[in-house]
Amino acid sequence: MLRALLLESLHPVATSILRSDGVEVITRNGALDEAELAEALQGVHLLGIRSKTQVTERVLDQAPDLLAVGAYCIGTNQIDVSAAAHRGVAAFNAPFSNTRSVVEITLAEIIALTRRLTERDKALHAGIWDKSAEGAHEVRGRTLGIVGYGNIGTQLSVLAEALGMSVVFYDSAEKLSLGNARRMHTLDELLEAADVVTLHVDGRDGNAGMFGAAQFARMREGAIFLNLSRGFVVDYAALRDHVLSGHIAGAAVDVFPDEPKRRGDAFESDLRGLPNVILTPHVGGSTEEAQEAIGQFVSGKLLQYVTHGSTTLSVNLPNLALDERTGSHRLVHLHRNTPGVLAGINKVLAEHEVNIEAQLLSTRGDLGYVVTDVGSDLGPDVCATLGTMSQTIRLRVLS
Ligand SMILES: NC(=O)c1ccc[n+]([C@@H]2O[C@H](COP(=O)([O-])OP(=O)(O)OC[C@H]3O[C@@H](n4cnc5c(N)ncnc54)[C@H](O)[C@@H]3O)[C@@H](O)[C@H]2O)c1
């Protein structure tokens, strides 16, 4: 029987999905340190974590039964994914289960900033009746500039058009524009066209500091700026200067270069106390709906991997999308990607008169992944021979 250890108070659906497939599930509320985790992983095949549990090479070396790690979140920096792959441990995450949540908060903030809602709210809480239309606008007819037209950027594009906004976008990769959105060929072109600029780029190293004084200076007078992507992408001191000068009329920021580790920790930023600036503690994707969607998505991926060998969207193994097996057994072989492995596997199968009904190979860097469906029984010799091939990292037989 497969056993899973789920840490860090995952959504209950993560547990129920695994249990419904016969997996024994142990849950714990908090994260575990390295030594505790290594001990807790004895006899455990599936591990579920959020961002606090560190799955290091040392932990992986002490977890011989582990088949897969599910990061029930977006990032996977807390897992040594390369060390995991080279020990035959698949890693999965939930790259787009909270996309809608980010899109909704972005739209809410665009409207709130355009109407200067936070200022009205603060004044009234302070007992001041400041009824005025000054500086308050509709978003209808305004131009939204989306930088990074990926999962979040594209969905935002569709919903913003439904609100009557004109959408322009800039993406460093070739992207299909949705609806009436217009592609800009440079970031500068977008900055000159947009009343609202919102960043949704990914966290690649080259994006560090991509938005600074020069880019703020290019923005329209009275424009609004949002960053819900990554903290290190923006020079916030430059944003502060442009807000204080009145050039930027408002901003919303959800991500920061140095974020406090724990709930209740102190928060320092150049942006505190600025007018018409909404600051949120990296909650863009944090909704109960997103937590549930993440629980469903990652538990589903773990089950697909252990029962069918499917590695679709794994962050560290070659990706193969697989359904039910066609034969009576499925051989799942992860190996070092050197010439002749496939021929070697098939030679062993032929020598033991095992007929191949279907076979798929995928490679990723120095790793190869072959999945073979066979119609006849496999004697112990077949698995022993395949398991001891010099390139074999992990061999599993799914029956
Ligand atoms: N605030 C939150 O809570 C929260 C939640 C989820 C995601 N995010 C972050 O939002 C960002 C977008 O997420 P996603 O799922 O849409 O990612 P994605 O990978 O689907 O899209 C990113 C897009 O940005 C483009 N891009 C990268 N660098 C660029 C550059 N310098 N200029 C122009 N385009 C560039 C890429 O080509 C890609 O199309 C990520 O950084 C992610 O970490 C934040």
Note down, in words, how this protein is organized.
31% of the residues lie in helices and 20% in strands. It contains 13 helices and 16 strands. It has helices spanning 12-20, 34-40, 57-61, 81-85, 99-114, 117-125, 151-162, 187-193, 213-218, 236-244, 288-308, 341-351, 380-387; strands at residues 3-6, 24-27, 46-49, 68-71, 90-92, 143-147, 166-170, 182-183, 196-199, 223-227, 248-253, 277-279, 329-336, 356-364, 367-374, 392-398. It has a 7-stranded parallel β-sheet with strand order 8-7-6-9-10-11-12, with helices on both faces. Strand 3 (46-49), helix 3 (57-61) and strand 4 (68-71) form a beta-alpha-beta unit. Helix 1 (12-20) packs parallel to helix 11 and helix 5 crosses helix 7 (151-162). The longest helix has 21 residues, at 288-308. 39% of the residues are buried.
The fraction of residues assigned to DSSP E strands is 15-25%
Widest sheet: strand order? 8-7-6-9-10-11-12
Helix count, DSSP H or I runs of 4 or more residues: 13
Give a count of the beta strands, DSSP E runs of length 2 or more: 16
Overall mean confidence score, pLDDT = 95
> Given the helix and strand composition, which structural class is it?
alpha/beta
State the separation between the terminal residues, measured CA to CA.
13 Å
Bound molecules: nicotinamide-adenine-dinucleotide
As a whole number of angstroms, the C-alpha radius of gyration is 25 Å
| Structural shape | elongated
Low-confidence stretches: none
The helix/strand series, from N terminus to C terminus, equals: EHEHEHEHEHHEHEEHEHEHEEHEHEEHE
